[in-house]
Specification:
six-stranded parallel sheet, alpha/beta, 10 strands, four-stranded parallel sheet, globular
């Protein structure tokens, strides 16, 4: 029987463009599925099933919180627990945290309850170690990635003379992702520069971003993107204007 790995998410995603969900879906359909059984569900669905699921490993992808410490304590009694830290980083603190002392103690308790914490990038790992959020022995660096066959198959598309230079940016339309900064930068470009920007994704800030773009013919909102490789095949460059990214699935 294959080892059973339960992946607990926050329950919020944007389909193919939701970074965590997309990565876990890719993992579950990769060659590793021959060696492991992957189950992906939010805490609310997983909690009543834990006794019957009997996972060998539980990987928590939801953001840590004071309230969530109780859930981590419950999980410890069932299987080994790992926290895959997709959410917090130095710049998250800078923009969102009023009391760094209180926030860091919450993370120390959460990471202490887990048997191991996964950092998504070297910078995030260095931030964890700098503030002693967990011991070096308990932090492992595993960069998030998905099966890339579809991305590597994107052909080069030669540009015709006079064709605009095409930029794309995509993800959740939220403050974190910095699309407002990108739109303001586009609006500062001289009108004779032949550059276009396509923004893919949906989110709470969409109306505000459209207002910032105004009637600019150089900025186009594409809505939800389900086939990212096809979207990328139409562009010359990708822009990632995020204010913070612990790892950065788009990158």
């Amino acid at each position: 029987m294959k080892p059973k790995i339960l992946q607990i998410t926050s329950g919020h995603s944007m389909g193919w463009t939701g970074g965590i969900t997309a990565t876990l879906t890719s993992l579950a359909t990769s060659r590793l599925a021959e060696e492991f059984d992957f189950l992906v569900m939010p805490w609310g669905e997983a909690e009543p099933l834990l006794a019957t699921l009997k996972p060998d490993l539980i990987v928590v992808h939801a953001a840590s919180s004071w309230r969530g410490l109780i859930n981590l304590w419950k999980l410890r009694g069932i299987a080994k627990v790992m926290i895959n830290e997709h959410h917090y980083s130095a710049n998250f603190e800078r923009f969102n945290v009023a009391s760094k002392f209180r926030f860091r103690w919450m993370l120390r308790l959460a990471y202490g309850l887990a048997h191991r914490t996964i950092a998504a990038s070297a910078d995030q790992q260095a931030w964890m170690l700098r503030y002693k959020l967990a011991t070096e022995r308990k932090i492992t660096l595993i960069r998030s990635c998905r099966t890339l066959d579809g991305f590597l198959a994107v052909p080069e598309s030669p540009r015709a003379i006079g064709q605009p230079f095409r930029l794309v940016a995509y993800g959740r339309l939220a403050f974190q992702k910095g699309f407002d900064v990108l739109i303001k930068a586009m609006n500062l470009l001289p009108p004779d520069m032949n550059i276009q920007l396509q923004i893919g994704g949906t989110g709470a800030d969409e109306a505000h971003l459209r207002e910032l773009a105004g009637a600019s013919s150089r900025i186009q909102f594409m809505g939800r993107i389900d086939d990212v490789p096809a979207f990328l095949s139409q562009c010359d460059a990708v822009v990632i204007p995020s204010r913070w990214e612990p790892g950065g699935n788009v990158c």
